[in-house]
Design goal:
The complex is a heterodimer.
Chain A lengths: L3 E3 L2 E11 L2 E6 L3 E6 L13 E7 L2 E7 H4 L12 E9 L2 E9 L1 E9 L3 E2 L13 E7 L2 E6 L1 H6 L1 H8 L4 H13 L1
Parallel strand pairs in A: 3-12, 6-8
Antiparallel strand pairs in A: 1-2, 2-3, 2-9, 4-7, 5-6, 7-8, 10-11, 11-12
Chain B lengths: L3 H27 L4 H20 L3 H18 L7 H19 L11 H14 L4 H5 L4 H8 L11 H7 L4 E10 L1 H5 L4 H11 E8 L14 E8 L3 H7 L7 E11 L1 H6 L3 H7 L5 H20 L5 H15 L1 H7 L10 H25 L5 H24 L1 E3 L1 H18 L3 E6 L4 E3 H22 L3 H6 L6 E10 L2 E8 L6 H10 L11 H6 L21 H11 L3 E8 L3 E9 L4 E9 L2 E6 L3 E7 L1 H6 L5 E4 L2 E7 H4 L10 E8 L2 E7 L1 E9 L13 E6 L5 E5 L1 H17 L1
Parallel strand pairs in B: 6-8, 13-21, 16-18
Antiparallel strand pairs in B: 1-3, 1-4, 2-3, 5-7, 8-9, 9-11, 10-11, 12-13, 12-19, 14-17, 15-16, 17-18, 20-21
The chains are: A alpha+beta, B alpha+beta.
Chain lengths: 178, 721
């Protein structure tokens, strides 16, 4: 994270984006790149918010519809639709994940003063997923804690299909050997 | 030299040598008179001893010394090979293994020195108690060498044994050796190396004083030239220098391969040399003017052999060019590479293959010969590179087979059965990853064979079969697959008993009409074991399930190929050659690309509306008089859209059962570079991964066994509701 001393306050950079007409932001250090939406290959029999996989320069990267994941409506693809590629630590490994958003806005600087605590209620989003509310000019941005949003991914699905664990383990093993 | 890296290499090497010794011992047991095998064991032990001492594994060096003494007796015919001796030596190998795993410097905690002493004592007793004689010679590898002259000819040690049985072709090597100071400070001596070389065959040694003329013994860096004649391969020669390589300039050059016919027509020195390109005709005439008479004269006088003159001439030639040759002599090297680096390389090649396919597709849109030609060249190179890289990871399956010999020996002793293991096709190559994971299922299969399949010797005789049962392990290539079969000549599978057990355990429904093959293959279901008692070996009903799961994970299949009462059983495992890149069948459902592993595909047929109507929408269809159930992938994967009038059905074979996968279109074969679907999709149903197509789209790889399992379960659930 780019941190600069400025008037004695820490400044961090965030990437702001729009989900269903609302303003969101995540730490810029989590984002590796932003892509225009490309051909998504849907993986059958998976929860709807998992949009599928894309080919990112020869690598297969899973993509998630951030709108659906956060309990809003799904992203409708327009020419503004973007996929943010974020880097995550999962079980000690760095993995890529694509997040489908309505549009990506810009990189903004937020001082600590600009970030307010998460309201106990009223956001309509699981407060666990929110790091804080950023104030930029007269707008408010919901700053997401992307690690928490994605943390339970593997497990949550596992519970949904608890009787398919054997199959899952197999797939995992194959993944490991491939 | 106490470097960790070296110690790790030593451990690895020694473990390999021990494996080699173990399999040699088992061979020796079969043919106790074969002195060549003794020689092989001796050499391996000797290497362990030498390098053990070098890296401070004194306990190992000490122990192996006793071992060697014993072998020496055997080699000299003073002791004979008995099964007691083999037992002891095998136990000794285990002990060395234990010492190796322990911390090494000293005898570790989990190694009981008493065991070692007992082993030594028993060894000495067996070979005629010669402990005292060797007491002073604990550190004798060096002493031994010192007694012998470092130069001049030595008789090859196991001359009789090897030459007698040898149809092997002798090869002459020239080995040049320039030790550095580091070499000597590491406790090495040139004599030690020469001593090891002389075990391989006839050695002729020349010492060339280095810059420090007449320097003190041991610290002058003389260059050494050794001419070696041996019927052993280059590897054996190279092995001698495994540990010295880092501290010496060593080059091993094959001078000439001497097969008898060749030798006859190559009587003339000059011709030989010119033919080999060692010298030019000009050189020869110059050399001949000086040397010919002397060489011939010596031979005529029977002072030296013809081959020695050959060697000397080469030597002279070599001296003239010595300085020029130091850097440029061609060495037949092999290097150890971390498996991780290879994986990385394979990943990169995988990406290259994908991108090359894309390039080819793009270039086909432009009708430009200037573009098409280089693209085609890239395509060819990529294919070659891919094969080459994949080939690096290929290992002969024989390495795994060797392990099982010991297993069979120990098991049959434990269970009171007499079993011999016959292996075939050990040279068949398979991907290292596959081989690594194959060990466990193979052990289960062999255990099962011996525990369940084999009768006791008495029973066998009563049935008029030979006392000794045979377990046959064979491996062979079949297209892009390797087929491994485990065959025994035991009592065969008991159909009734398996069925009864299956019903008992609720794995099979009573009254279900199963074919014999289906019943046989139900032994792979979890929880099914027909052994009356649970032994340490088997009977818990886990083993065969493990076999099946592991093999399926490796994208292969396992099934009972044949089982005849009192004749025996054959179980076959079919595996793909590699896991990184597989041959797939690219198919299409609506606009979703799917890949089926070609190894599992049997055939493709059409499924028309009439076929479906004929069976009133029941999901099965007769294919050449056999009813094949099918799963419609469109339904299974809930892919929206309208299915076409004529669908395609790909018949796949999983664990000996056929079933159909119905889809829209078969596109064709596809070289599939496997990619994981990513962590969020690790529980994806019916899919094992993905691959990137030439057009940049992602295709999903179908996990056929999983689809079968899930489809069966879902159908059962429907009835349960």
């Amino acid at each position: 994270m780019t941190k600069v001393e400025e008037k004695g306050e820490l400044v961090a950079q965030y990437l702001s984006f729009i989900l269903r007409e609302e303003n969101f932001a995540i730490e810029i250090s989590k984002v590796r790149e932003v892509l225009d939406v490309t051909v998504l290959t849907k993986i059958p029999r998976m929860p709807e918010y998992l949009s599928g996989v894309i080919n990112l320069r020869g690598n297969v990267v899973p993509v998630m519809d951030l709108g659906l994941k956060l309990g809003m409506t799904g992203i409708e693809q327009t020419h503004n639709t973007c996929i943010m590629i974020v880097e995550l630590e999962v079980e000690g490994e760095t993995v890529d994940m694509g997040l489908l958003t309505d549009s990506v806005q810009m990189v903004i600087d937020l001082r600590n003063d600009d970030i307010e605590a998460v309201p106990k209620m009223g956001t309509g989003i699981d407060t666990e997923f929110i790091k804080g509310m950023g104030r930029q000019d007269e707008k408010f941005l919901i700053i997401l804690d992307i690690d928490k949003v994605l943390a339970k991914e593997g497990r949550a699905v596992l519970q949904d299909n608890s009787d398919e664990i054997i199959g899952a383990e197999q797939a995992e093993a194959v993944t490991a050997t491939a | 030299m106490g470097n960790k890296e070296y110690v790790a290499i030593f451990r690895e090497e020694t473990a390999e040598l021990l494996d080699e010794i173990e399999s040699s011992l088992l061979e020796l047991e079969k043919d106790p008179s074969d002195l060549m095998i003794v020689g092989r064991i001796f050499r391996a032990m000797h290497t362990i001893k030498g390098s053990g001492a070098m890296f401070g594994f004194d306990a190992i060096a000490d122990f192996t010394h006793h071992f060697e003494t014993m072998l020496d007796k055997v080699r000299d015919g003073k002791a004979s090979v008995t099964s007691d001796l083999i037992d002891l030596t095998l136990a000794s190998c285990d002990y060395i293994h234990a010492m190796l795993d322990a911390d090494g410097e000293t005898v570790g905690d989990n190694v009981d020195p008493e065991v070692g002493e007992k082993l030594i004592a028993s060894l000495q007793k067996l070979v005629g108690g010669h402990g005292e004689g060797d007491a002073g010679g604990e550190n004798s590898p060096l002493d031994d060498c010192a007694k012998k002259s470092p130069s001049g000819q030595r008789a090859p040690v196991q001359d009789g044994g090897e030459k007698a049985s040898a149809k092997e072709i002798n090869v002459h090597y020239r080995i040049s050796l320039l030790p550095t100071m580091e070499f000597f400070s590491g406790g090495n001596t040139v004599e030690q190396l020469i001593d090891e070389l002389s075990l391989l065959g006839e050695c002729t040694v020349f010492q060339h004083p280095g810059n420090k003329v007449d320097g003190g013994a041991g610290d002058n860096n003389d260059a050494w030239e050794i001419l070696l004649t041996t019927d052993r391969g280059t590897d054996a020669v190279e092995d001698v220098f495994v540990f010295a390589r880092s501290s010496c300039n060593i080059s091993v050059t094959v001078l000439v391969t001497e097969d008898e016919n060749h030798f006859a027509e190559h009587q003339k020195l000059g011709e030989i040399l010119i033919a080999r390109g060692d010298i030019s005709p000009d050189d020869l005439s110059r050399v001949l003017a000086k040397q010919k008479r002397i060489g011939d004269l010596l031979v005529e006088e029977h002072l030296v052999s013809r081959s020695k003159v050959d060697a000397a001439l080469v030597e002279q030639q070599m001296l003239q060019q010595a300085s020029a040759k130091v850097g440029q002599t061609k060495t037949a090297d092999s290097i150890r590479v971390a498996a991780e680096k290879l994986d990385q390389l394979i990943n990169l090649v995988g990406e290259l293959v994908v991108n090359q396919a894309r390039l080819t597709q793009v270039s086909s849109k432009y009708d430009d010969p200037g573009l098409v030609e280089p693209v085609e060249e890239v395509e060819r190179l990529t294919a070659e590179l891919r094969d080459c890289v994949l080939n690096i990871r290929m290992l002969p399956i024989g390495t795994t087979f060797a392990r099982f010999k010991r297993l069979v020996r120990d098991l049959s002793a434990e269970l009171g059965k007499e079993v011999v293991l016959v292996t075939e096709g050990g040279e068949t190559e398979l991907d290292k990853n596959v081989i690594d994971q194959l060990g466990e299922p193979m052990i289960h299969l062999i255990r099962n064979c011996i525990d369940h399949g084999m009768e006791t010797p008495a029973d066998r005789e009563a049935k008029g079969k030979p006392r000794k049962g045979t377990v046959r392990l064979s491996a062979e290539h079949a297209g892009a697959n390797v087929v491994i079969s485990v065959t025994d000549d035991g009592k065969g599978l008991d159909v009734e008993k398996i069925l009864q057990k299956g019903i008992e355990k609720g794995l099979v429904r009573a009254g279900e009409d199963l074919s014999q093959k289906e019943i046989f293959n139900s032994i792979f279901m979890p929880g099914l074991s027909t052994a009356a008692t649970v032994s340490s070996v088997s009977g818990r009903g886990v083993g065969m399930d493990v076999v099946k799961t592991t093999i399926e994970r490796l994208k292969g299949s396992v099934c009972v190929a044949e089982s005849v009462k009192n004749k025996g059983t054959t179980i076959t495992i079919t595996l793909p050659l590699t896991l990184a890149i597989i041959d797939g069948l690219l198919v299409l459902v609506e606009d979703t690309y799917l890949v089926l592993p070609l190894t599992q595909v049997e055939e493709c047929v059409e499924l028309t509306k009439e076929d479906i109507d004929h069976f009133h929408d029941r999901r099965m269809i007769p294919v050449r008089d056999q009813l094949v159930p099918y799963v419609r992938l469109r339904d299974f994967f809930a892919i929206p859209g309208k299915r076409p009038e004529i669908e395609q059905m790909v018949i796949v074979m999983v664990n000996g059962e056929r079933f159909g996968l119905v889809l829209d279109d078969v596109i064709g074969e596809h070289q599939t570079v496997l990619k994981s679907l990513g962590w969020v999709y690790r529980n994806a149903i019916g899919l094992s991964g993905s691959t990137v197509l030439g057009n940049g789209e992602v295709a999903l790889i179908i996990d056929v066994p999983d689809i079968m399992k899930v489809a069966q379960k879902e159908e059962k659930d429907v009835f349960a509701d």
